[in-house]
């Protein structure tokens, strides 16, 4: 196994902790199961074009303030709006 560090919002962390407790497993095991479920074919993993992401990141101006501190949210918003496909 490879040790990995992940940052979660407080709400996601609480939800993950609740779900793990309800399932009787550790949060780590629950994350492994969620990843395995997504990656091993039950649901497809959406892969985005690396060049589109890099163009977005390299723009330097997103049109919104605070993007550097909230880059994950800005990328998520751009993906949902279809701007990076």
Commentary on this structure:
The protein is mostly helical. The protein folds into two domains: 1-45; 50-81, no CATH class. It has helices at residues 10-23, 27-39, 50-58, 71-81. The longest helix has 14 residues, at 10-23. The model has no long low-confidence stretch (mean pLDDT 76).
Approximately how much beta-strand content do the residues carry?
under 5%
Low-confidence region ranges: none
Annotation, overall tally of beta strands: 0
Identify the overall geometry. elongated
> What's the tally of helices?
4
Radius of gyration, whole Å: 16 Å
Return the domain count.
2
Largest sheet: none
What's the end-to-end separation, in Å?
Answer: 33 Å
- Average predicted confidence as pLDDT: 76
Structural class of the helices, strands and pairings?
A: mainly alpha
Oligomer: single chain
The helical percent reads: 55-70%
Order of helices and strands: HHHH
Which descriptors would you attach to this protein?
85 residues; mainly alpha; 4 helices; 55% helix; elongated
Short account of what is shown:
With 85 residues, the chain is mostly helical.
């Amino acid at each position: 196994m490879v040790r990995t560090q992940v940052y979660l919002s407080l709400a996601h962390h609480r939800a993950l902790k609740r779900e793990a407790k309800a399932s009787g497993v550790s949060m780590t095991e629950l994350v492994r199961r969620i990843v395995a479920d997504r990656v091993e074919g039950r649901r497809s993993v959406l892969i985005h074009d690396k060049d589109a992401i890099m163009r977005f990141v390299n723009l330097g101006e997103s049109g919104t303030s605070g993007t550097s501190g909230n880059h994950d949210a800005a990328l998520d918003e751009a993906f949902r709006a279809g701007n990076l496909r």
